[in-house]
């Protein structure tokens, strides 16, 4: 494993870092100083300056100019450039994965896995660049042909969250680029350095291929930058990942100007475990889903809905599994759980624990804020499990922390109703070896989530499928399948190759 200074140097990250970039030029913002602190030990890693409104407008103007040139390049050529980016991320996987782990706090394995997602989506986008298909249709008029084609939208604004500081950007950017769009990325102000690193990694690819300045833009800043992006009619699509509260504000701002938005918001994900489940398979999926990234995934398992006949056995198995968890420095590959992102997240964990107790909930695995030796000034908490009722207000909310609610059910219909009876609708799962139970869960009257799995947990979505959810999760779809269509505009074309002009519906109009 490289030391901190080694991977910061490898990624060209210095003590002071330019927070704005248009792919060819980088500069310090004119706003306030933004320091990035590691939740691993509370130390300041490095700093940058936030963008001013003048900085932001300069970036937008550059991106608009770049779009006029970038959209003219053939899609397979754009795909080739993305392929080269993927190679650069392969070369820098270890260093960038360590930086993700250190700046965000997720385990090293998860940090490396996040960089692998960038590599995978680059591969996917390369193939997609030759598959931006439209349809042909038969015309009702003689000597006419109808077809549809897809064109780039323009400037795409990407607002990403701290929990996946680089992967979610890549889901959007790589697809948008092969579609012919240009991108402006506003990373979370809690994880700006990983974003700067990504821009540094691809900068040589952009220059070597004479990519116009402004195709890949980075703007570091706080909430005000996100508001500028949402309100800006020059931005054709705003892709925002974060809380439901944030997404609602973005949707309202973009909607007022009749723009397009792609929202990936909160999750309150459940796993149903039936009496016919293979618990040997289920337990690792439940535990990883609940404690992976310290419960700070939108796909984290929040609720475990267990049949009454195996409820007590499930509690015993969870106690045994949780007692084996190792909590500590995420750069130590032996540890399973790293810190929460900051003290505010720790406070939210504590407030949720108090609320569970006030409702009469009992903890199967006790909560604890971890201080002292081995934890330093980091933000470490113990993953916990509480017996709860689905209708409690605190259970209806998404708490970004490793808190799992254990809920009992008697019939599969009741379990599905519990699963669906929350405002969010991102990911869901059922563990069963009964084909009828599995198909019932996947049917139109089953899970109401955008993701529904059988014998696999709620987290760990593959890039080949469209990612996203319903209800307060926002309805957006990113990554695979036909999610590319969100980044393009559809155009229907009718071509007359005849010698006269027959009008639709038999209308005659003589001159």
Automatic annotation (TrEMBL):
Cited InterPro entries: Ald_DH/histidinol_DH (IPR016161), Ald_DH_C (IPR016163), Ald_DH_CS_GLU (IPR029510), Ald_DH_N (IPR016162), Aldehyde_DH_dom (IPR015590), ALDH7A1-like (IPR044638)
Matches recorded under Pfam families: Aldedh
Database matches in CDD domains: ALDH_F7_AASADH
Keyword Zinc-finger attached: no
Coiled-coil annotated residue ranges, if any: none
Positions of the catalytic residues: 264
Residue stretches making up the Aldehyde dehydrogenase domain: 34-492
Molecular function as annotated in GO: aldehyde dehydrogenase (NAD+) activity
Transmembrane helix is among the record's keywords: no
The EC number(s) this enzyme carries: 1.2.1.3
Key words, A-Z: NAD, Oxidoreductase
PANTHER family named in the record: ALPHA-AMINOADIPIC SEMIALDEHYDE DEHYDROGENASE
Oligomeric and partner information: Homotetramer.
Family: Belongs to the aldehyde dehydrogenase family.
This protein's name: aldehyde dehydrogenase (NAD(+))
Gene transcribed to yield this protein: pcd
């Amino acid at each position: 494993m490289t030391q901190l200074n080694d991977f910061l140097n490898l990624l060209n990250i210095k003590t002071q870092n330019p927070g704005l970039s248009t792919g060819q030029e980088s500069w310090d913002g004119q706003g306030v100083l933004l320091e990035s602190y590691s939740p691993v030990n509370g130390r300041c890693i490095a700093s940058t300056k936030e963008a001013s409104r003048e900085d932001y407008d300069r970036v937008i103007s550059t991106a608009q100019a770049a779009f006029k040139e970038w959209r003219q390049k053939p899609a397979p050529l754009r795909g080739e450039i993305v392929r080269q980016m993927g190679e650069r991320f392969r070369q820098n996987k270890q260093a960038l994965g360590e930086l993700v782990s250190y700046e965000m706090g997720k385990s090293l394995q998860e940090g490396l896995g996040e960089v692998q997602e960038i590599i995978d989506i680059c591969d996917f986008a390369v193939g997609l660049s030759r598959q931006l298909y439209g349809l042909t249709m038969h015309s009702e008029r003689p000597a006419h042909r109808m077809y549809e084609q897809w064109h780039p939208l323009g400037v795409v604004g990407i607002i990403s969250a701290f929990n996946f500081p680089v992967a979610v950007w890549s889901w959007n950017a790589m697809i948008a680029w092969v579609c012919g769009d240009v991108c402006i990325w506003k990373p979370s102000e809690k994880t700006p350095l990983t974003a700067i690193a990504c821009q540094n990694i691809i900068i040589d690819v952009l220059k070597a291929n004479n990519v116009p300045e402004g195709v890949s833009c980075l703007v570091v800043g706080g909430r005000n930058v996100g508001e500028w992006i949402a309100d800006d009619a020059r931005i054709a699509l705003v892709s925002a990942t974060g809380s439901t509260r944030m997404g609602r504000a973005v949707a309202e701002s973009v909607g007022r100007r009749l723009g397009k938005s792609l929202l990936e918001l909160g999750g309150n994900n459940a796993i149903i475990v039936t009496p016919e489940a293979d618990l040997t398979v289920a337990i690792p999926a439940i535990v990883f889903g609940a404690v992976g990234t310290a419960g700070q995934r939108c796909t984290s398992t929040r609720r475990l809905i267990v049949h009454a006949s195996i409820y007590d056995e499930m509690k015993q198995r969870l106690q045994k599994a949780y007692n084996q968890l190792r909590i500590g420095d995420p750069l130590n590959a032996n540890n399973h759980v790293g810190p929460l992102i900051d003290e505010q997240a720790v406070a939210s964990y504590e407030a949720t624990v108090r609320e569970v107790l006030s409702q009469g909930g009992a903890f199967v695995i006790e909560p604890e804020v971890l201080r002292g030796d081995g934890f330093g000034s980091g933000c470490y908490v113990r993953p916990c499990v509480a017996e709860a009722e689905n209708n409690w207000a605190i259970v209806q909310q998404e708490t970004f922390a490793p808190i799992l609610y254990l809920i009992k059910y008697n019939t599969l219909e009741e379990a599905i109703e519990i699963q669906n009876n929350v405002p969010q609708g991102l990911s869901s799962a059922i563990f069963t070896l009964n084909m009828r139970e599995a198909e019932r869960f996947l049917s139109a009257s089953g899970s109401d989530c955008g993701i529904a799995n059988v014998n696999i947990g709620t987290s760990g979505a593959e890039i080949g499928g469209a990612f996203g959810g319903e209800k307060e999760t926002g309805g957006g779809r990113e990554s695979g399948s036909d999610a590319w269509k969100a980044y393009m505009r559809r155009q229907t074309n009718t071509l007359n190759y005849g010698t006269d002009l027959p009008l639709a519906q038999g209308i005659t109009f003589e001159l």
